[in-house]
Amino acid sequence: MIWNNIEGEISRLPIMIRTGLLAGLALAAAAPAAWAAPKIQFISKTTHEFKTVYQGTPVAYGFFFKNTGNQTLVIEKVQADCGCTTARAVPEKMAPGAKGKISVIFDTFHYRGKQHKTVTITTNDPHHEKVTLTLSGTVKVAVDIKPSPSIAMLTVVKSEKKTRTFTVVALEPMKGFKVIKVEKAVPYIHVSAPRPSKKHKGGFDITVTLGPNAPVGRLGQDIIIHTNHKRQPKAAVRVWANVVAERK
């Protein structure tokens, strides 16, 4: 009845004014439906600076947020930029007014120096379908591998043995520093007992041998060095090789 009266009054107006008024009334009628949507709002910042940690120390942080919309907020996907970082949303669905958390853990074991890790979350918020969270800081090394924590044996013929020697050193001097144990995961990599280094005072030399039973193909395996250093009890050495079939 009311709409009929309004329509009757509008019909008496000039056509251009009449068209504009009808369009405005139609938009106003549809507006409440357009406003019905979830909205993600972070209570904390979307970036976290963890400053400095020692290699091997995990960095854990929680990004808190709230659904300030009037529909259920859904965290559809949580994707870290590398395998060193894990992240998950708790809960994944939130009613209007509810709070949630994105828990992020960065494993620093194979990293050193300045780091910048990101996590991208996908939501059903029409204005924030994707949000990027960032962890940044510096990973400090207390126990190092000389000449490098990465040993490249390049191309190796399967029937041959190939050896390399590396040295474990304490960059932060520690009285009585020593290597407690050397751990490897595969039978075709052999490691010697640690022995005092002649080149690096206070360090320990270890020889690694890639045996003839190594599988053909590209391989990358970690050797874990256990030490008594309080700041960094473990260090990793990655052995790389391309094993080819025996020449005929």
Automatic annotation (TrEMBL):
Q: Which domain of life is it from?
A: Bacteria
| Signal peptide, first to last residue | 1-36
Q: Does the keyword Protease apply?
A: no
Pfam families the UniProt entry points to? DUF1573
What does the UniProt keyword field contain? Signal
Instruction: Return the InterPro entries for the record.
Output: DUF1573, Ig-like_fold
In the UniProt record, does the keyword tRNA processing occur?
A: no
Q: What is this protein called?
A: DUF1573 domain-containing protein
Organism field: candidate division KD3-62 bacterium DG_56
